[in-house]
Amino acid sequence: MELKVLFNVNHVLSTASQHVEKTRSQALTESAAIRKRNNMDIGTYTFSISGRQQVEENPKGKDWPVVYMIHNESDLYIGETTSACYRMNQHLQDPKKNDLRKIRIIFDESFNKSVILDFEQKLIKYCMADKKYNVRNKNLGQSSSHNYFDRARYYDSFKELWNKLRQLNMVKKPIDAVENENIFKFSPYNSLTEEQNAISTDIINDICDCFENKKEGISLVNGCAGTGKTVLAISLINSLVNAVNLDEAEIDEESANIPKVQALLRLKRLVRKRGSFSIGFVFPMIGIRKTIQSVFNNFGNGLSGNMVIGPSDLIRKDYDILIVDEAHRLCRRKNIVNMSGFDKTCESLGLDKGSANQLDWVLKKSRFRVLFYDQDQTIKASDISYDEFECSLMPYDDVTKKYELKSQMRCQGGDAYIDYVKRIFNGRPEKFETVTNYDFRLFDDVDEMVSEIKRLNEEYGLCRNVAGYSWKWVTDIRKPLCRDRGIKTYEQIRDAGLYDIDICGHKYIWNLKTEGWILREDAVNTIGCIHTTQGFDLNCVGVIFGEEIDYDPRKMEITVDLEKFHDTNVKRGTDPDVVKQYVINTYVTMMARGIHGCYVYACNKKLREYLAEFIPKHNMK
Q: What three-state secondary structure class fits 344?
């Protein structure tokens, strides 16, 4: 997905000395060059024969790449073509579009085929999130994004287009507000990368092979944080649900040879023959599960919040296809809260409660499974271990296809940033490395970092502070201290003088709730944890390393003090070395939440000194 560069020249480029910098004059010169090159115009015509004749009279109406929007008061259809009048004539003959009244055609001298394909996909995605219109497109995600010439600069052109559409009352929200919406981030209309698109194509063919040959199957997709696992999963579900709606009349000769299109046509034939699939989208973590349920309910087009389920919901029915996001967070029978519920589910499925895990539930209740997995994001003793994961899949080895997502999609710092962070905490890098295009900083003052994140949140939205479990959750509103005093809000906790975290006299409170914390208005005033952030994107994240994690300069290794680590569900009955890796995995995962930046503060001086060897210092004001 294309993401805006949130942090301006004054903020990021002047403070991150390791970045490739541009001066303000250079930026202004480039911007002026773009404006001079582009001559964007939005033509408005009636969606009628006379309107088509007017389009034909336009110098760019017959033989020029354009993007168009056909609409009435409530509904909108978006498309692209190299001949506006010819394509308009086709649409006028479509009875499904008889109720549409106007067509807006975007003409621009700089457009080419790659640009209009990109803009079409963007407009579908942005307009769906904007909610001004009901967008009729049932785009199946067959288009994959690619880095065509000058793509980054064309994003500026798209912003210009969006502003023009706002002036025409075609869209409601500013572009940055749209980009912060969950319905935007988790849209089924995200353009897939070539890597994602290839894997999606293969999985669709895997599914077809499974059901055509009446056998079972598994597609296992490995990928670290930020490689687009959830985006791929949602796009895949959209394809499975809407393949039957694929309009073959709109597929030209060139597109018919694209592997993804061929796979979708194969899927369409299969669905027509056997009927639609029963699909479950499994999320072990309740926070992101409820977010995706809401997104699916808002989108419609065959997607329903009822499709998004937790592992315990598997007891209700059998599924043709189960897609499991964050499969590394599926549970085993260790340190879980609802032990009796786990045992009852195992019993009802005919599984041994002593040895079974939630992956076994998935395998038992479905015929085909798509598992998205990252061993390095296992963070609790209750999470299924790598060995147990492999053991459960062993009987299915001959029907399992394995794939890997390698390219970083979230962090603008890319694969190099994620790899660098992992080496800092799992094996000392040989030297300081420059992380380009990313605002990566180490703070000496925790409150300055917290305040900076708050400032960025005020300006851009979706910036949050998070921390490791080095402090007890005293202000839990479900417990007697708050419950018996009727305390339920951040303001009430603050006014009562309560707090959870004390760092050098600076006092903070933990997130009030786990579910939906990311989007709460008071979230920026509290400190989140791994369970409130795993699976979500933030524009910038501030990570507080607590007193439980330190650095031993003699052994030259990261250390963890279990006495200062307060997540009992993680450490109870677990080998200390395993807990240490859980703690490291937690911090690395939180550091991968930020799209444009990650700020770091370490409570322990030795750890802070160690990190200073590899992370640029924040310039004190």
A: helix
